[in-house]
Amino acid sequence: MKPLEIFRVESPDKTGAESYELVTRDVLADLELTTILGRLWMYIDPKEPVFIFCALIRTGLPPIRIKDIADITTGTTSAEGVLIAIVNEGYVVPLLSTLVAEYGRENISQPDKKTIAIATEEKIEVAESVAEVIIADPRREIASRLADALLRITPEGFRVRHHTSTESEMLFVASEDSIKAEWIERAKNMMKELKED
Amino acid sequence: MLEPIMYEGGVFKHNLVIELIEDLGGYILQTNFMQTEVMIQMLCPHSDISMVEDLAKELRAKITRAPLTGTDIIVIAPTLAYQHLPHHACDVAEYMRRHGANTTLVGLARGVGRRIAQISAKERALSDEHDLAVFTFGNFEDCIMNKKYVLYKDLEVPSIVTGTPELEETPAYAKAYVGGLGRIAHRLKGESELCALDKLAEVAGTILDEIRLDISKDPLTTHPARIMKEIKEQIPEIGKCLSPAPITLQLRGARIKLPYSRCKEAIENITFEEGVKLSEIATVLPSGVRDYMLIRILPKSVTGFVI
Q: Hey, is the C-beta of B165 within 8 angstroms of any chain A C-beta?
């Protein structure tokens, strides 16, 4: 699935739909979601009033482990502890907070900008286990960004919301009044059609 | 009659313009310096504009008529949420400011939605303190035409509505409608967006000119700019006010950014060289904005004279 290979915004009000497409594109670009969504279909009818958002999410982003962003060594034989040499500085903050939570603040030191040391006597075991620790999960971050995008795109007055989401799809219905079963049915059909396309 | 004009040019010798305006009996409303450039908003007697134009030509500066000068416009967004701010409502407010208006930007507490949209009495009173209200609405024709009018139908000041669709007729209760300015999530810099903003400024200017004409049928006892001048001369406290525009001129008076509770009497006791006190020609009211005060100048039909 290519990024945004299907982008459909439908509404009985043609000008409104065109304008909404522009708003959606801006919001997705602001939140860097353009490459995350594969297919998107929105339907807005202000007279009902209902807002339906169906999207297929492009999956395949693995969680980031410490071994992905740093080289782990046990240092010299005389040194006490495990040394983590950071390669990708983008994840230093979550890395430090994870290590502090795991091994305690008093056991973590940062001798220089790109090195973090864990003071331990069981160097080999710690070096092995620390490599697999997950420090960031892009999928979880995407889910929160996607929720943010939805809140920004949805008309503000539509505060009654229904949503179902999995790792690969997102279905969202919002309205000013109680959600009708037929709207959810319509959203499900849209999702089904989106998958078949 | 005083014409609102704007002078844009270099700082060099700009004081000659200020002196000329004062000699002609006009008023300087605001002077903004931008490094080596200066922008002066002023009111000049209609018959003497050519003299100012000649001087501006000599100084290689530009004189433009700015009908929004000396007016107080309120820009109202349905709420202060991401859907309406910053790009749409703020850009509208900023554009009006560039044309000389003093703008206030507010978001309503419960202005969103269709069935649920409402405006409170306090918000309505606040809007009525201004000369003109601009409502920035969204994308759908049905909402603008059939639902959102509840927000402005009871306002006493004229309302301009903006939205995305180009409508053939103005929505009910609104004075004017400007299309192409609906919900936008980027900065307004496209050609069509800037054209829409220009149109909005033009429409606002026309409506304000109509109000000016209306006022001239029963003229105010004195011009608001005269009150501004007297306050600056007689109330030293205004110099300590940190607001960018301590005295905001309006078509029928002014908003003074001094505490009503403390300064009301001092303002009322301002005397004009003709021998009248301000309390005789205007009423001083508390403003809905903080503890500021609002001056409403009485018309000739009430006081019986013009100074």
A: yes
The domain total for chain B is 3
> Residue A83 has which token pair?
């040394």
DSSP letters, A53-97, are EEEEEP---PPEEHHHHEEEE---SSS-SEEEEES-GGGHHHHHH
ipTM score: 0.81
Q: Do B165 and B237 fall into the same domain? A: no
- Identify whether B219 is part of a domain: no
- Intra-chain end-to-end CA distance of chain B, in Å: 13
Range of the domain at B30: 2-65
Interface of A with B (CB under 8 A): 11, 13, 15-16, 19-20, 22-23, 26-27, 30, 44, 46-47, 49, 151-152, 155-159, 176-177
Compare CB distances from B139 to A16, A26, A27 and report the shortest one's residue.
A16
**H or E stretch covering B48:** none
Contact A136/A149 with Cβ under 8 angstroms? no
- Residue A176 and residue B115: Cβ atoms within 8 Å? yes
Closest by CA to B248, choosing from B130, B132, B135, B133, is B130
B89 and B165 share one domain: yes
Residues B58 and B186 in one domain: no
> Nearest-CA residue of chain A relative to B118?
A157
**Confidence bin at B250 (pLDDT 50/70/90):** very high
Type and span of the H or E element at A171: strand A169-175
pLDDT in tens, B194-206: 999 999 999 999 9
Q: How far is A13 from chain B (nearest CA, A)?
A: 7
Q: What percent of chain A has pLDDT over 90?
A: 40
- Closest by Cα among B125, B87, B127, B121 to B106: B127
pLDDT of residue A78: 61
Q: How far is CA A31 from CA A24, A26, A93, A127, B266, in A?
A: 11, 9, 21, 36, 54
Nearest CA to B67 out of B184, B193, B209, B185 is that of B209
Asked if A46's CB is within 8 angstroms of B117's CB, the reply is no
Report the DSSP beta bridge partners of residue B107.
Answer: B77
Asked if B146 reaches chain A (Cβ–Cβ under 8 Å), the answer is: no
Same domain, yes or no, for B203 and B78?
yes
CB–CB contact A157 B117 (8 Å): yes
Angle between helices A138-153 and A14-30 in degrees, nearest 10: 150
Residue A16: list chain B partners with CB under 8 A. 139-141, 164-165
Check if the beta carbon of residue B152 is closer than 8 Å to that of residue B133.
yes
Residue B179 has pLDDT above 70, yes or no: yes
Q: Rounded CA gap, B44 and A12, in Å? A: 52
Contacts of B53 (CB under 8 A, 6+ apart): B63
